[in-house]
Design brief:
about 375 residues; alpha+beta; MutS, DNA mismatch repair protein, domain I; DNA polymerase, domain 1; Dna Ligase, domain 1; four-stranded antiparallel β-sheet; three-stranded mixed β-sheet; about 20% strand; globular
Amino acid sequence: MDAFFASIEQAINPRFKGKPLIVGTRNNKFHTVVCAASYEAKALGINSGMPSIEAFKICPKLEFTPADQSKYIWTSQEILGMLKCYNLPVEYASIDEFQIDVSGINNPVEFAKTIQKQIYSRFNITVSIGIAKNWILAKLASKLKKPNSLEYINDENLEFILSTVPAKKLCGVGEKTEIILADLGINSCLDLYKKSASFLEANLGAVGLNFYYSLRSKDSLNTIQEDDSGPKSVGHSYTFPRLSENTGFIHAWIRLLSEMIAVRLRKQDLTAKTIHIWLNGPELGNFGAQKTFTEHTSSGLEIYQKALKIMAKNFPKTPKIRAMGVTCSSLLTNNYLPLLAEDKRREALLKTVDKINYRFGESTVYPAVIELTKRMK
């Protein structure tokens, strides 16, 4: 999706249409962080993760609205439901990104145009689509000419397109890897593509091998298919448009991802005991940590709290992050009977919220983002 959060706000409120707009993580427009920026704002140099006060210095007439996560989750789930109607393998990559296996489609370009038209007709937002033989090339293609673009990478134009794209644009290339690649004389994606597996492994280790095989893979989806015994884990991730070390911004995203996971758990009548967080950044590389708790849960708030505890244990100071994810595992069927009054209250609240959302639409009722960091040790 193109500038997903900001585009939804512009679609709902005509006053924002065609104007530079930022979506903030808090209500106070001068004391928040840019959660999302419209393309009109991006053109001025305003991006996600920037303190709002800096954004208003760039553009004093900037439009502002606080984030309303219920809108974004609802729209995302509606789009997923729409895509599933085509009866093709489809995966939920993140709240604003989906993967579809179109290997059985005779004319994938026309199919992609149909999706673009349908999403715009229903939600009044645009989408950029990339088509290629594997997910990493398709993701690259989708980013080449945003917004509202459609790019098809095939065997005939593969090398030409890769020659025009800097290596840093490839998914998985961070600031440190970009420097290493430049020292090796690898500046474009084509330079990377032409290197042998042994060369990349010798200079980049497992990361280099991953680049080699990912660019040549024919795997349509970046996913491991679940067996019939049911899911082993439920998770969501998100890649920021740029690096961020703003604690409020990062915690807001952990809260959103946790709530999305909780909704999926409750739909499948599952609870989780193990919480895993994944972080990616220039100083971190790919960092993961998890903890198995005594209590199992399907509450977004509790998943969020536990994820913050894991993060606080490993990082006294918020690191620079480019991408992050939260995953729940050690899944159990929810046959838990609450005994304590507070547990009964929590269970009743979650059931009531789910009933309302089932009847009136996803995220009709949605928990407010609660700042818990000051109370957590």
